[in-house]
């Protein structure tokens, strides 16, 4: 007689507990929580899940578990908190290999002792390495160093049937034709479990300077009846400010925008320069920013909002082609009503917009639809990363996904039984 799922999970030797009220995934409650301590234990859990058709959702620090669609079902929450070891730090080669449950804050502390860093700048230091990869989180310095996908040089993953596969570095078992690390980055746990990751590191910069300047988006006009009103016509084009800085000899590491009052408030541009002659390069950036009529400040400390998302409960991500950040901001401004905040990586053309959690569902729906129409017309995408449950049910989180057919084929290749976070990805993948 075949073992029941609970018995089969217990027989793996992995720590298993019943799920509690704090273990739900976007409102979906699992039956069990698994706490593996090695890649082999992850594989053992997934073998049982595959045999018993148990849906599995991987979780790290839980900081982005509310991103993406709720899973269709969740039987096992696979918690990577016990996969928390730095396996290898080859300081001379600027390479580190870690388990997926190591937090980004812990890793930063360890690397700093050797004068090195993983240049990802994630918003929350409690986020884990695995979660950062699964959600494809990147920070301000993506302009200079790239995203998590760019810095990743190897990965060990566990597939839905329990197969352990590796790519990059000293490959033991690969899956022909796939770069597993890059494929699993941004997959929201729908292809398997990231168990280990190897990254390319950089030396900690000897010096840093931030240069900030603030510009208006609206000007006062007098209409035909003699009444004064504000018009959001962006007297200073954001890209005209950002473009010359991004291509300048100052070689900025990051160019960020903070826009705390989308309706009529000004936006602030902050530029980071790092390394040799940081002060002189910062002064050059200052001149470029002041050429557009704003006074610029230079500081050795970042602005308080640097590297932080503008909100968490209702968060929209806008990605546009390089040079179209002004278009994205104009679409947001045109559709905005109420307390809406935005922040983003200007030169990388990524903007995050935070809406109030208590916004009327109809208003939220119209805002997303209006912004999406304009942004998609400019060749970009609008993704609803997180939203209150009542509102999320009414929204198309992902919009148009051009490669949906390919994504379905990849899902079928890696998870034919649809047990890995089913429904979390576009198209119900």
Q: How many DSSP H or I helices?
A: 13
Largest sheet: 8 strands, antiparallel
CATH architecture of the largest domain: 2-Layer Sandwich
C-alpha geometry: globular
Going across the biggest sheet, name each strand in turn.
Answer: 17-12-16-15-19-20-18-21
State the secondary-structure class: alpha+beta
Number of domains: 2
Protein name: Glycolate oxidase FAD binding subunit
Domain FAD-binding PCMH-type: 25-204
Pfam families: FAD_binding_4
InterPro entries: FAD-bd_PCMH, FAD-bd_PCMH-like_sf, FAD-bd_PCMH_sub2, FAD-linked_Oxase-like_C, Oxid_FAD_bind_N
Walk me through the structure.
This protein is of the alpha+beta class and 429 residues long. The chain folds into two domains: 1-204 and 401-428, Uridine Diphospho-n-acetylenolpyruvylglucosamine Reductase, domain 3 (2-Layer Sandwich), CATH 3.30.465; 208-393, Vanillyl-alcohol Oxidase, Chain A, domain 3, CATH 3.40.462. It is 27% helix and 25% strand. The protein is built from 13 helices and 21 strands. It has an eight-stranded antiparallel beta sheet. The chain has a five-stranded antiparallel beta sheet with strand order 5-6-10-8-9. A hairpin with a 4-residue loop joins strand 5 and strand 6 (95-99). The protein is globular, with a radius of gyration of 23 Å. The two termini are 33 Å apart. Residues 170-174 have low confidence and may be disordered. Residues 25-204 form the FAD-binding PCMH-type domain.
């Amino acid at each position: 007689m075949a073992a029941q799922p609970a018995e089969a999970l217990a027989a793996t030797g992995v720590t298993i507990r019943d799920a509690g009220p704090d273990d739900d995934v976007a409102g979906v409650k699992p039956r069990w929580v698994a706490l593996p301590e090695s890649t082999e234990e992850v594989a053992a859990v997934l073998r049982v899940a595959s045999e018993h058709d148990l849906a599995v959702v991987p979780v790290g620090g839980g900081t982005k578990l509310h991103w993406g669609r709720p899973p269709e079902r969740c039987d096992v929450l696979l918690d990577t908190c016990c996969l928390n070891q730095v396996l290898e730090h080859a300081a001379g080669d600027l390479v580190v290999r870690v388990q997926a449950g190591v937090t980004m804050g812990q890793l930063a502390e360890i690397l700093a002792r050797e004068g090195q860093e993983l240049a990802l700048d994630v918003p929350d230091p409690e986020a884990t390495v695995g979660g950062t990869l699964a959600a494809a989180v990147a920070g301000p310095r993506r302009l200079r160093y790239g995203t998590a996908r760019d810095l990743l040089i190897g990965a060990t993953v566990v597939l839905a049937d329990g197969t352990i596969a590796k790519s990059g570095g000293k490959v033991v078992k690969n899956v022909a034709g796939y770069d597993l690390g890059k494929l699993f980055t941004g997959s929201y746990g729908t292809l398997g479990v990231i168990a280990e990751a190897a990254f390319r590191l950089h030396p900690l910069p000897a010096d840093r300077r931030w240069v900030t300047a603030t510009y208006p988006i609206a000007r006062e006009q007098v209409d035909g009846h003699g009444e004064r009103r504000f018009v959001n016509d962006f007297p200073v084009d954001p890209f005209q400010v950002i473009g010359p800085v991004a291509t300048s000899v100052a070689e900025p590491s990051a160019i960020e925008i903070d826009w705390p009052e989308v309706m009529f408030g000004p936006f602030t541009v902050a530029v980071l320069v790092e390394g040799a002659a940081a002060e002189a390069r910062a002064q050059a950036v200052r001149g470029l920013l002041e050429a557009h009529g704003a006074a610029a400040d230079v500081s050795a400390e970042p602005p308080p909002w640097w590297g932080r998302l503008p909100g968490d409960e209702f968060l929209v991500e806008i990605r546009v082609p390089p040079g179209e950040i002004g278009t994205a901001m104009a679409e947001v401004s045109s559709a905005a009503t109420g307390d809406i905040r935005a922040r983003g990586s200007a030169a990388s053309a990524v903007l995050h917009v935070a809406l109030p959690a208590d916004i009327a569902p109809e208003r939220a729906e119209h805002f997303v639809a209006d912004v999406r129409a304009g942004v998609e017309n400019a060749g970009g995408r609008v993704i609803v990363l997180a939203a209150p449950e009542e509102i999320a049910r009414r929204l198309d989180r992902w919009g148009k996904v051009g490669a949906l057919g390919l994504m379905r084929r990849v899902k079928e290749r890696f998870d034919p039984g649809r047990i890995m976070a089913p429904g979390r990805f576009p198209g119900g993948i």
